[in-house]
Amino acid sequence: MAKLKVTESPKAKIAKPFLKWAGGKTQLIASIESALPKDIHNQKFTYIEPFVGSGAVLFWMLNNFPTLEKAVINDINEDLINAYRVIASQPQELISILRELQAEYHTLENNEEKKKLYYYEKRDLYNTRETNKSTQAALFIFLNRTCFNGLYRVNSRNLFNVPMGSYKLPTICDEPNILAVSEVLQKVEIMSGDYTKTLEHAGNISFFYFDPPYKPLSNTSNFNSYAKGEFGDEEQIRLRDFCTKLSKLGFKWILSNSDVRGHDLNNHFFDELFKDYVISRVKATRMINAHAAKRGELNELLISNYSHEQALQTA
Ligand SMILES: C[S@@+](CC[C@H](N)C(=O)[O-])C[C@H]1O[C@@H](n2cnc3c(N)ncnc32)[C@H](O)[C@@H]1O
């Protein structure tokens, strides 16, 4: 009998965010954990994250809560959501394109000029938005790994315009993680559009985590243009109204945002906006800031519509 050739499969890994993303929530997970409804570990539930970004909390939830039956994720950034969908449905095709991009980029390591040309050529190709979905997702990941600080910024015509970063040999194809992410995404519904649409997919017992673009602490620290359009004060108010609607329907939620009062004692914007809810101030380190000196410890807000001793099911 012919011997079967055993091809080594990449080591299984725990799924983690496959992107760098402004406002990534890894730093806040311990605080979020202690603010969850107390019986969430032994209650079947649907997890809903309407502003998913790189999904730091999503992957942590998927890895640590066996009672999580289904998740629903959403983001207004269609290119980001395309990357999630491709990882979920065509991980092998994505991996082979990323492998090639990585091999080509790494061979240019010592030639700054050629590397630059290559980066801008791929950025132009991405901006045509005419390649197939898996190539588009691969280019999105490539740009995220090689651009300046992993920023995602587009102009008014939705053209990605971040310059090249200065990483030496960035990992562009993290195959074990893509496979791990693909596997955990099998129980995730992936949506793209305004966050309010997620309500249509809520199950009986659903828990929402909102991580909207943060209100800037000052006019110069404006990092809230992730996609077309801005997320100004009217948007923060519309989101509060949506949270109130969820409360009336009996759903529990947590929302994070910047602590504007910590920066300016007279700024009571969130304290007033969420005066009917539970507001805690927690420490967090901001990972993306254009000025290295400004990366440091800040307070952030965790707001919920229940006291942290409450169970998931009690409305
Ligand atoms: C602070 S980031 C989320 C970061 C995420 N928690 C993480 O760990 O990476 C906010 C996200 O909201 C998205 N967004 C902005 N406006 C939106 C809207 N109206 N509906 C849904 N998503 C929106 C942005 O594209 C961005 O990815």
- Mind telling me which CATH architecture of the largest domain this is? 3-Layer(aba) Sandwich
In terms of structural class, how would the helical and strand content be classed? alpha/beta
Can you write the helix and strand succession as a string?
HEHEHHHHHEEHEHHEE
Total DSSP E strands: 7
Strand arrangement within the widest β-sheet reads: 3-2-1-4-5-7-6
Which percent band covers the strand fraction? 5-15%
Tell me the Rg in angstroms. Answer: 21 Å
Search tags:
10 helices, alpha/beta, Adenine-specific Methyltransferase, domain 2, binds S-adenosylmethionine, 7 strands, 315 residues, seven-stranded mixed β-sheet, globular, Rossmann fold, disordered N terminus
Would you kindly provide a written description of the structure presented here, covering whatever features stand out?
By secondary structure, this protein is α/β, with parallel strands linked by helices. The protein folds into 2 domains: 26-76 and 193-304, 3-Layer(aba) Sandwich (Rossmann fold), CATH 3.40.50; 84-176, Adenine-specific Methyltransferase, Domain 2 (Adenine-specific Methyltransferase, domain 2), CATH 1.10.1020.10. Helices cover 35% and strands 15% of the residues. The chain has helices at 29-34, 56-64, 78-89, 91-107, 112-128, 133-146, 175-184, 233-249, 260-263, 269-273; strands spanning 45-49, 68-75, 188-192, 206-210, 252-258, 278-285, 297-304. The longest helix is centred in the first third of the chain and has 17 residues, at 91-107. Bound molecules: S-adenosylmethionine (SAM). S-adenosylmethionine (SAM) binds at residues 21, 23-25, 50-51, 53-54, 56, 74-77, 194-195, 211-213, 226-227, 231.
